[in-house]
Design brief:
The protein is mainly β. The protein contains one helix and ten strands, in the order βββββββαβββ.
Length: 171
């Protein structure tokens, strides 16, 4: 499982940044060259009836409009809002902010769900950084351990990849 641009291809301005990070040695910098909407996503197998947590550390500058969403499909594709009441998570306003964690719960998935798309979106220009992305089964420990049930590969953008700058993430 890795991260890809919705529709394929590359997104100019999406780079790994070693200077700005929440933890580890780098983060993903989102600085699109125009004001369109850009989405990266990761497809993950999901278990029907199971609850999940989606969490992202975000830093924004220059009024970056960043939002996070989950889409699910089984017999037919549908947004998570259509299948289990989870809303698209969007930080309030288009403001500059220091590293802030955004977390939301996806309550039990419908029985026909087979996969989910975990998405990170930016629109309207600006610059943002994301780091320490988590999508998985909630754990009871207050601080996640290295093997914390996170289904995403390389959530802190630390490992180099064969075809991209970050293992598990595809441009």
């Amino acid at each position: 499982y890795g991260w890809v641009k919705e529709g394929g291809g590359e997104i100019p301005g999406f780079t790994l940044d070693t200077a700005e990070k929440h933890s580890g040695s780098q983060s993903l910098k989102l600085a699109p060259e125009d004001e369109g909407e850009y989405v990266i996503l990761s497809s993950i197998p999901a278990e029907p009836g199971k609850s999940y947590t989606y969490s992202v550390w975000l830093k924004r500058e220059a009024a970056a409009n960043v939002f996070f969403r989950v889409a699910a499909w089984g017999d037919a594709f549908s947004w998570a809002t259509d299948i289990n009441g989870v809303e698209i998570m969007k930080p309030s306003g288009n403001a500059t902010e220091d590293w802030t964690q955004y977390t939301f719960e996806i309550y039990p998935l419908n029985e026909d769900v087979e996969n989910v798309w975990v998405q990170i979106c930016i629109s309207g220009g600006g610059t943002a950084w994301v780091d320490d992305v988590f999508f998985g089964v909630p754990v009871e420990e207050p601080e996640p351990e290295p093997d914390d049930g996170n289904l995403l590969i390389n959530p802190g953008f630390e490992m180099d990849g064969l075809y991209t700058d970050a293992y598990g993430w595809v441009k």
